[in-house]
Amino acid sequence: MAENTKDFLLVLIQNLSKSEKRQFRLYVNRLGINTQAKFLLLFDHLDKTDTYDESKIIEQKITTKQQLSNLKAHLYRQILISLRTNPSNQSNEILIREQIDFATILYNKGLYKQSLKILEKAKQMSLSLEEKDMAYVVIEFEKIIESQYITRSISTRADDLIRDATSLRKLNVLNSKLSNISLKLYSMMLANGFAKNEKEKRRIEIFFLRHMPKELPINMGFREKLWYYKSYVWKYLLLQDFVKVYRYALHLINLFYSRENMIKIHPVWFIKSHSYLFNTLFFLRKKQKFSFWLLKFEEVLRALYPKNGNVEAVAFTTLYNARLNFIFLSGDHTNGEALIREINIQKEFHSLKLDAHHLLILRFKIASLRFINRKYGKCMEELEKIIYHKSTLIREDLYFNSRILFLMSMFDSGLDENMDEFLGETEKFYKKMVHKTEFCRLSIELFRKLYNAPPTEKRTVAKNYAAKYKKIGSETYNKRSFAYLDVISWLESVYLKRDLLEITREKFS
């Protein structure tokens, strides 16, 4: 979902490029429709506005309140038809479906041999692009024609169709099982975050053992291997076993480089595979490998064409998350402001296509970078956009960590007149959390002690709690909590009276 909920028709029109809007008007004129047609008047009105206001549409006498719903639906459909005819939107999947549509028309007219000829073309295209589900649909259609009409095909035609259909059905079932596992593990991540103890780890492992097929066919194609590797990536991400995540993320990426035509065919999957790799290399602190893969990724992205809105949005989040991570990894925090300015410009361009979760993670990293650079006001501005965001899809640990970083900013900046009130709100939030951790409990305790301690004792409190954080930070399930919210380094800067930027650089180097 986009960050701001808007009328679907308005969002669609706002997402059209200038050339797509021009093509839509040409499409309407080619139909011979009067240029004053109501749906075109509605299109022109919505094209000039940023907000959907029903009363203004009725006030301008474009349509009546009773007819507005039907008019919007008609305009929506006409825009989609126009987009479908745009060459830039002619994906392989659309082209295959178009061939099946043509074959259906010929079949309905009784031109069976012509229909079979087009279906054969669609089948070969589907198989070459690893679109096995579409290939299966084509073969089932061929079976209908062959079983109902005498086409005088070769004698082995029936056996060939049966064999191909059986093979494809098995691979499609496998593909479905593997994609189900990957999707379920991803939903676990969104709902609960990473495994926080042995009990959660065991639950994930049991689920994986129960659902992962025991034997895999030797003729697995690109798509089956992709879902297979993705399932393992998500499994080990949940278990926070980043060495194994790296191994399977590398399998994913090499799968694309072994068949480079698939990069263009499935660009989103290619980009997402890199997001797993970058996050893992960041947690493993592998700076040189991170730099190598980031440069290679940027090179491929520049050459990737054609690009659509979906590809550009996914590329934006993956690329800039990676660039921010590399700044943390290299310790080059002072150069982060230039990158942040670039992100904010790009973010406005992609805002309607970005889902709230990825957008807020980007905001948190920007806030962390600004905190290290002592830009506390801008840091808190970013954090407020996370803390007071109302989406129910955001993980509670992101909300909680944003509150802790906000408290750290209050403490360092001296803007702490409302600290007691904000800390009280954070304590209430903590009590409502479904998945409480030792890190969360300790953080609440720390700031209550810091707030109540006299100025002369604050450094002692910081030193004592730094030791406590180090103890829990050595445990597998707590390590990730410190990746972007390095409370230990911050506490060291408090009791040692040293610059946090210097301490951070030393640790990463």
Structural overview:
With 509 residues, the chain is mainly α. The protein is 74% helix and 0% strand.
* Cα shape: globular
Question: What's the story with the biggest beta sheet?
Answer: none
Helix content: over 70%
**Low-confidence parts lasting 5 or more residues at pLDDT below 50?**
1-5
- Structural class by sheet pairing and helices: mainly alpha
Brief summary:
This protein is an all-alpha fold and 509 residues long. Helix content is 74%, strand content 0%.
For the structure shown, list the relevant keywords:
mainly alpha, 0% strand, 74% helix, 509 residues
Summarize the topology.
Elements: H1 8-14, H2 18-30, H3 38-47, H4 54-59, H5 65-84, H6 92-108, H7 112-128, H8 132-148, H9 157-192, H10 198-211, H11 222-238, H12 242-258, H13 261-265, H14 267-283, H15 287-303, H16 309-330, H17 336-350, H18 356-372, H19 376-387, H20 396-413, H21 419-432, H22 438-452, H23 458-473, H24 487-496, H25 500-508
Helix pairs in contact: 2-5, 3-5, 6-7, 7-8, 8-9, 9-11, 11-12, 12-14, 14-15, 14-16, 15-16, 16-17, 16-18, 18-19, 18-20, 19-20, 20-21, 20-22, 21-22, 22-23, 23-24
